[in-house]
Amino acid sequence: MIRRPSEWLPAPPEPVFTHVDALRHFDADGNLHEAMPFLTGLMDRGKGFRQDMFAPETDGIRDHHLPNYLAAFEKNLAKTG
User: Fold this and answer.
1) Is the distance from CB of 30 to CB of 72 less than 8 angstroms?
2) Residue 17, phi then psi, degrees to nearest 5
């Protein structure tokens, strides 16, 4: 809400991903990582794209189906449990 520029100014947005305590990543093989360096992440994206290059959905959408997350969680729970 701005009444006059000298009185009310909007606050800058929060930094990205402040709504989570810790950010984790699943790679193209479903392995859980606590950090994904830029180059490693770039190579992983390329691998995920090549695995299903001619699938009807794009790689960025297909990766986010709930059964994919459940399978990755179960795979990683078996490693730690």
Assistant:
1) yes
2) 65, 35
Per-residue pLDDT tens digits for 29-80:
888 888 888 998 889 888 877 877 777 666 566 667 788 888 888 988 887 7
What amino acid occupies position 71? A
Which residues on adjacent β-strands are paired with residue 26? 32
Residue (of 62, 59, 34, 32) closest to 48 by Cα position: 59
- Terminal Cα-to-Cα distance of the chain (whole angstroms): 51
pTM for the full predicted model:
0.55
Residue 41 token pair: 């992440």
Q: Helix, strand or coil for residue 57?
A: coil
CB atoms within 10 A of CB 63: 16
